[in-house]
From TrEMBL:
GO terms for cellular component: membrane. This is Solute carrier family 26 member 6. CDD domains: STAS_SulP_like_sulfate_transporter (cd07042). PANTHER family: SULFATE TRANSPORTER. It holds the Pfam family Sulfate_transp. It is a multi-pass membrane protein. The keyword Transmembrane applies. Keywords: Coiled coil, Membrane, Transmembrane, Transmembrane helix. The chain crosses the membrane at residues 93-118, 124-144, 173-195, 256-273, 285-302, 338-358, 370-389, 409-427, 471-496. Its main location: membrane. Residues 559-591 form a coiled coil.
Length: 729
């Protein structure tokens, strides 16, 4: 293989500091004032109004240009397929939310239509989602436990649960927390807070959804075994629930367990067959719908509820619910849960939306997505829906079956409307164990996320630790507190990494203007007499002290000890001079010479003085260059640290200069009072090479120039001439 052709270049210019660059580039110092920014944002024009309207209502920008010839058939097939999936999933996830199954159908209708108008993603399928449902269920069970609705039955002489009053209260709670979470999302979108999702890293989100899936599985075990355990809330409630379920296993309803096992095995086999035939079939087989229909027919024919005690869905009212104002008195009790729901729902939706946007080459507006999801949840809360997000399984079906726009989502809502109005009552005999089985099988993908652990161990151990800790926190602290704790831990890892950066001394690659860490390259040599120091992290209050310590360690200069010795020697010199001066004065008086009368007398020459040795220590470098290229900001502590380093090393005749400062860092230095009459921008350089040439040109502090020049003459480095100060390389 031919050797790659290498290009060469030569540069002939002066050594430039930051002040020179500002002058040559005619740097502008004008900044837009806050008043001007407000005026600009409030200005109104025809194109601006049109842009704002199209941004607020994205459907108005793409629906008039909708291509029926290219997109209609795919959207139709996709919409029907997703709508069929919404039926069993909506009913199953309603059980997770601890509300009657029909409210899962409502949550698959209203929010989907709202997102169709305001959403910007073309491919995600919004609606019920397991993680959101289990979070809602946690709130509902905490505020409306079964124990609050026990009534005495005179016929059986025992307490029973008033399921009607309980379900009504739980629906009110679910609607209130959903409405409030929607308001949070709208407010965050209006203040352009879409970047909040950046704090949800991929390992954190995947670990969180896996931990939430464990909560989902545990919450559905009661339907799989036909038992009725107590519901616990708060931290480690999952552990209490598992212990309670184990205690109740001897009371398992055999008929319910058989239905669960048959449904799970059948669904797994059918999904594997569906995956095997996926490339041969134009549309995936609606396995879940088929399972629901078969289970409903068998339950109706065999009468599973009365003969074997298998719990069924029960009454499913036809039609839609009228709007109901949310219960404001509940807001104070669910405000934390609502905020967690808003962040989690948005994080999942925007993550999946960006994947499809990158794949198909369009843009998803993160702030508009917040507003779209917020309106879907807040309006849905008025119609007694529970919080929604996007489902990965439905989104993949929507894409794979030809869906190209949100028209597919609107058509899926029409399918749900048809079911709700006319055929919903046909599923009243559906066993809840089948819905639990559908949930278990749909969580296969989340369980496969455990394979992230070995992959992250090989690629990034910090991300692996974030995954494991986030999973454990979610399992132990429940999804709401677990999310907050996981985000806090993730942020702490960032802080710890900035507190433990890599410190390096840089050397020059021979005959180039390139500088690399000397410990990483065998053919990189340090510039004699010049120490180039770099930290891999920004400089701020948390690592400022470590920065100074690392500089002393890498340079081998104990600046504190040297300054202490210097001060002691200086004090000793002054005491000795003062003592000798007094002694000389006494001797002159004995000779009868008055020093005040003859101030210019030659007798004063006899007073002993000590000459200070001003020759610098040649073992110390001439200058230190601080490479600040990784530094993107400096706080007040960081600025004081730079000032302290420059002052302390300057006292031992080592000049400290800064290289590769970003414009924001220069502004921080200026605002922090770094510059004064003695310290100007002449100590700042745009490149390390300019700084090196400045330090070697004789302008930096060094007395023993002859020895230094001789030492440097054998070092292969482009030099600047003393007269022209031009760089040749």
């Amino acid at each position: 293989m031919e050797e790659r052709r290498r290009m060469t270049y030569n540069v002939n210019r002066k050594v430039l500091d930051e002040g020179d660059l500002d002058e040559m580039g005619e740097k502008t110092h004008t900044k837009t004032s806050l008043c001007d920014k407000i005026k600009g944002s409030m200005s109104c024009s025809g194109p601006r109004v049109k842009s704002c309207l199209l941004g607020a209502f994205p459907v108005a920008s793409w629906l008039p240009r909708y291509s029926f010839r290219e997109d209609a058939l795919g959207d139709l097939v996709s919409g029907i397929s997703v709508g069929i999936m919404q039926l069993p999933q909506g009913m199953a996830y309603a059980l997770l939310a601890s509300v009657p199954p029909v409210f899962g159908l409502y949550s698959s209708f209203y929010p989907v239509l709202i997102y169709f108008i305001f959403g910007t993603s073309k491919h995600i399928s919004v609606g019920t989602y397991a993680v959101m449902s289990v979070m809602i269920g946690g709130v509902v069970d905490r505020l409306a436990p079964d124990s609050n609705f026990e009534i005495w039955d005179n016929v059986t002489n025992s307490s029973i649960i008033d399921s009607v009053a309980r379900d009504q209260e739980r629906v009110r709670i679910a609607a209130a927390v959903t409405f409030l979470s929607g308001l949070f999302q709208i407010l965050l979108g209006l203040v352009q807070f879409g970047f909040v999702v950046t704090y949800l890293s991929e390992p954190l989100v995947r670990a969180y959804t896996t931990g939430a899936a464990i909560h989902v599985i545990v919450s559905q075990l009661k339907y799989a075994f036909g038992i009725n355990p107590k519901r616990y809330s708060g931290p480690i409630s999952l552990i209490y629930t598992v212990v309670e379920i184990c205690y109740l296993l001897p009371q398992t309803n055999v008929g319910t367990l058989v239905v669960s096992i048959v449904a799970i095995v059948g669904l797994i086999l059918a999904k594997e067959l569906n995956a095997y035939l996926g490339k041969k079939l134009p549309v995936p087989l609606p396995i879940e719908l088929v399972a629901v229909i078969i289970a409903t027919v068998i339950s109706w024919q065999v009468n599973l509820e009365s003969r074997y005690g298998v719990e069924v869905v029960g009454d499913i009212p036809s039609g839609l619910q009228p709007p109901v104002a949310p219960t404001l008195s509940l807001f104070g009790q669910v405000i934390g849960d609502a905020f967690a729901l808003s962040v989690v729902g948005y994080g999942i939706a925007i993550s999946l939306g960006r994947i499809f946007a990158l794949k198909y080459g369009y843009k998803v507006d993160s702030n508009q997505e917040l507003i779209a999801l917020g309106l879907s949840n807040s309006i849905g809360g008025v119609f007694q829906c529970f919080a929604i997000s996007c489902s990965m399984s439905r989104s993949l079906v929507q894409e794979s079956t030809g869906g190209k726009t949100q028209v597919a989502g609107a058509l899926s809502a029409v399918v749900i409307l048809f079911i709700t109005l006319w055929i919903g009552s046909l599923f009243e005999e559906l066993p809840k164990a089948v819905l639990a089985a559908i949930i278990f099988v749909n969580l296969q993908g989340m369980m496969k996320q455990f394979m992230d652990i070995p992959a992250l161990w090989r690629s990034n151990k910090v991300d692996m630790m974030i995954w494991v800790v986030s999973f454990i926190l979610t399992v132990l602290l429940n999804p709401d507190l677990g999310l907050a704790a996981a985000i806090a831990f993730s942020m702490l890892t960032v802080i710890f990494r900035t507190q433990l950066p890599r410190y390096s001394l840089l050397g020059q690659v021979a005959d180039t203007d390139i500088y690399k860490p000397v410990e990483d390259y065998g053919q990189v040599r340090q510039v004699p007499g010049v120490l180039i120091f770099r930290s891999s992290a920004t400089l701020y209050f948390a690592n400022a002290e470590m920065y100074q310590e690392a500089l002393g360690e890498k340079s081998g200069i104990d600046i504190t000890k040297i300054l202490s010795i210097k001060k002691k020697l200086e004090a000793k010199r002054k005491r000795h001079e003062k003592k000798m001066a007094k002694k000389a004065k006494k001797e002159l008086k004995k000779k009868g010479i008055d020093m005040q009368e003859e101030p210019n007398s030659e007798h004063q020459k006899d007073i002993a003085t000590i000459d200070v040795d001003n020759d610098p220590d040649t073992s110390l470098p001439r200058a230190i260059i601080l490479d600040l290229s990784p530094v993107n900001f400096l706080d007040t502590v960081g600025v004081k640290t730079i000032k302290s380093i420059r002052r302390d090393y300057g006292e031992i005749d080592i000049e400290v200069v800064l290289a590769c400062c970003q414009s924001g860092v220069v502004e921080n230095l200026l605002a922090g009072g770094f510059f004064n009459d003695k310290v100007t921008k002449s100590c700042l350089f745009d490149t390390i090479h300019d700084a090196v040439l400045y330090c070697l040109s004789g302008r930096a502090k060094h007395q023993n120039d002859d020895e230094y020049t001789q030492e440097f003459s054998s070092f292969p480095c482009p030099l600047a001439s003393q007269d022209s100060k031009e760089t040749h390389f």
